[in-house]
Design a protein that fits this description.
Helices cover about 45% and strands about 15% of the residues. It is built from twelve helices and twelve strands. The strands form four sheets. The chain has a six-stranded mixed β-sheet, with helices on both faces. The N and C termini lie far apart (about 90 Å).
Length: about 350
Amino acid sequence: MKCGNLKCIAASIAIFLVLLIISGELITRVFGTAVNEYDNTLGWRPKKSFSKKIQVIDKSGEKYFVNYLTNEFGFREFGDLSNNKKRILFVGDSWTGDPNTSNEDAYFGIVKNNLPVEVFVIGAGGYGTLQELLLIKEYAGMIKPDIFVLQYCDNDIINNSFFLEGPSIARGQKNLRPYWVNNRIEYRLPSDSLYIFLYKTSKLFRTLDGLLSSVQYKIYKGYYPPQYKAYEAYGDFTKGLPPELAAQIIAQKSNAISVTQSLMSEMRRILPPNTKLITFSVSTDDPEELRIWQSISRNAGFIAYPSVSMRVEEAEKNGETVRVHDGAHWNRLGNKIAGEELVRIIRRDFLLP
């Protein structure tokens, strides 16, 4: 077969592409920093018995290394169940589960090192309230916490809505996430779909899909294309929208708020009866989002503490660098400030006689 033959050229290209894909797969598996893995029920969950040293860059450009550790259950911290100390269970999303700080420098590490308690911590980036609830159901009977702390994020309500998250570019979340729809769990894609298959089997696919989302995020300046910005907005977002669409979005947001409150109420139901329920939000700078979170928390039986995030935001206004390079998540200093405020709150309201 001559090299100029079209079949020869096509075969060469095919072989090259196969080798390129195999090489990319090997490279992403060896050098990747993913701390989560696919899960049939949760969509994704923290890797179990996992240890990785990861470089982080904060908003000022400073580089530091994070020692990220999980135990055999995927917990970043798992206290001693054999003593009589009070037990605090922390559950959250990326502010709790992602490797922006080492375990000891995270807000929960500050609590662990400054209070006479046993600390248990689990969470994963992108989690919604239903995923957090499913984790609690899995481990509450084992841990039997005296205090439960829900780390809340202002995008939790959107994450809890099948409709509102539909136009999002975060495919690695919305396509895997379980949703609470009409009193049952539903998924956006069937488990045998091509996307799920590639996500489960190919680290290269997950990496490329994440890179595409990152590019789109920079172009759109957020997780939604311009025509869908109203899906994630609060306050007066209906201006310029067709009346039918505006009414639909308003109804879906109201439903998402109700779903979030129901899921948090279910957390209260499945935890031991005497468990003290605390929640803090990682953002309190939007008055409408703050009001909604406080209302949901109160109605679900939680005590909301906005001061945790407010302390961090106050330090940022004073010129401190409290976030990593994405401009959202807390760096070591942000976690230290939040952790110290949690120490003060827990000691004052739940430990002192």
